[in-house]
Amino acid sequence: MKKKLQQWAALCLTLALAFCLALPVWADEATTYNIVADQKGTIHVTGIEEPVNTTVTVNVYRLMTVNFNVPNQQPEEPVYTWVTEVAQWLKTNTNETYKTYINASDNSVTENFSVPTTDENGTKAAEIAAFYDALAAAIRSNAIVLNATSSQTVQGAGTQAVSASINNLDMGNYLVLIEGGMKVYRPSAVNLVPEWKKTSEFPETWEWVLETANVELKSSEPALTKTVSDTQVAIGDTVTYTLVADVPQFPDNALNKGYCISDVLPTGMTYNGNVTVEGYTETMDVGTAGDSLTPATHYTSDTERPTTDTATFALKFKYDMLKNASGERYTKIKVTYTATVNAAITVKTTSNTELTNNINNAYLDYNSDPYGSSSIWQTKTATATVYSYGIKVNKVDKNSQLPISGAEFTLTKVDEDDAIKFIGSNGTYHVATASESGTSTLVVGSSGEETGKLILSGLDAGTYTLTETKAPAGYVKLGAPKTITITDDKTATEGDTANSKPNGLVDDGKNSADGIDGYYELDVANSKGFTLPSTGGMGTVLFTTIGIVLMGGGLVLLLLYLRRRNRA
After folding, report:
1. What gap in Å lies between CA 42 and CA 172, rounded to an integer?
2. Cα 148 from chain centroid?
3. What is the pLDDT of residues 397-424, one digit of tens each?
4. What is the mean pLDDT of residues 88-110?
5. Read out DSSP for 376-425?
6. Are 291 and 280 in contact (CB under 8 A)?
């Protein structure tokens, strides 16, 4: 037993000696570093949400360098140093706080620039965000002559966000700025610097490593909505239009803060010139009254959009004044005005489905690149359509169904006493406006293609009574009026979905369920009457008497003939 223990001890000693002898061999192998000389890294940018085919350019600017000792694998003081161009801007800045971010002797970054983790109320973080905002403005205005370190162009993908990866970058602190696109992007800072990280659990190993730096862009994209108080109208009706637009969230130091709301009324609507403008903060409900905004203080008004297109009105806002008395910035603007339906309003037909006279267009124009060219504008559009309707009467002979002329009618809306007044002739009429002296007598067309037709337009949806006041010559006048109910095929309901909005088509029972146009069409037939039997005249007595006389005369003649024959 003792001998075996000695043998095991000798074996263990041999293995230990062999292990020790091998150590110098491992030490002589080439050293590998996690951070190498001229270390390069990648910045991955996310949060780029743009419409399809919209092009944006992602620019990164290196603001700081990193002092890292590669052989010793450790950072050295000063760890971070401002690049020369930024350092010069900091030293001469009028903002005294910014001057505390740099050590003037060696351009190093001071601890005053750091954001303490105990800053619970975000005061320091807001200060740093404002600094990067001011820095972005200085770079894009050439107050700092600093070219982009690298750039990448990306295409939007609609509702799906896209990203950009910018490679082969030196270590440092970078500023990310976006050009182009529909959104207003805030400047973003990202650190591409070594981190002390555990790279192995067993054995536990800690090393300096450079990983991809990720940054998610913060942006805002203003939206615009437009509604109208009544979508089914008659000539002379007054409707209220309401625009609600988001206020772009421009950085405080943005070079361009252009923001304009404009409206272009169609020819079928007359602007009443009574626009009102209200502002709403984040906590206010746009369904209630907002803060009143005035032209002198908050905006200017003219008829030219920033794109130089002509508008009914264009409100150009003074962005920095869009705050309430407490200094809270407005996040939404509501614009309200009225317009009156005029004679140019269009009833939908099979050959005219665009209804350009009925469609109102509103525009929200804004600078999407707050640090770029002031001439670059993006536009959001919202529309609101009103629909008007009509009645087509085909006046025909009851028996032949051929058109006849000469009839006259009046049209009255149910629950109203007076007949509606119209303007027109030869069977074609539209509702008269308040300034027009129309007539309530509607004469059926008597010449050309209008013969036997009565076409009335500019009517609202609802129920009407069509009364014949004069029949065509030689015909019997209708004894009872006709009741006509105009109903749009798709009536707006709660939620206002695409299939519930009015479409300007009327179902009159003669066409398909969806209608073919905006006219209620009906045939109105007249007859010439018929002959009735009568009493009190000569009756059949005369004819009977004559018949008896003739029969008697014939009998006499027959007897005389027979007597002569017998004598012979």
Report:
1. 11
2. 35
3. 999 999 999 999 999 999 899 999 999 9
4. 95
5. --EEEEEEEE-BBEEEEEEEEETTT--B----EEEEEETT-SSPPPEEEE
6. yes
